[in-house]
Amino acid sequence: MTDDYAERLRRNRAEKDDFFADHPQSPVPPEERGSFDGLAYFEPDPSYRVEATVTRHDDPDPVEMETTDGRVVRYLHVVTFAFEVDGEAAELQGYRQAGDDPGQLFVPFRDKTTGQQTYEAGRYMELESDAELTDGDTATLDFNLAYAPFCAYSETFSCPLPPEANWLDVAVEAGERTA
């Protein structure tokens, strides 16, 4: 990870803090925005920017994810990412909803920091590519970009909970954390 990448990441984090503090669509309740002094993050760490091998599922299985308000949302399990993190082999499933852009993937996950150093319901990553991923492709999973969903800041939001298939057995000390 170059100093330039770490600096870009810090600038993006500052922009997100500004959005949370001032924007009308901020998930921070209006009465709390005056005291909002920014999100907490782990320091950028290149070891949490991992290369993953893609397995594409041409006939994706539907997955029903529970949400923080008890509803259920349906996603399609379109890819599986196989990678190594902290010396451990791991996999995460990538999802999208029917009709979504094929280059957009949603990767919700839990890890050993969940509920202790990070939001209790898990965190999210999103991947964007110009084309659909195919079998054997390599994709970069950058846990430095992992974030807590809006429901971490307000109960007015309903957020999908990471399915058990996306519970990692390692602590991923990267991305957003709790204070």
TrEMBL record:
<protein>
    <submittedName>
        <fullName>DUF1684 domain-containing protein</fullName>
    </submittedName>
</protein>
<feature type="region of interest" description="Disordered">
    <location>
        <begin position="1"/>
        <end position="43"/>
    </location>
</feature>
<dbReference type="InterPro" id="IPR012467">
    <property type="entry name" value="DUF1684"/>
</dbReference>
<feature type="compositionally biased region" description="Basic and acidic residues">
    <location>
        <begin position="1"/>
        <end position="21"/>
    </location>
</feature>
<dbReference type="Pfam" id="PF07920">
    <property type="entry name" value="DUF1684"/>
</dbReference>
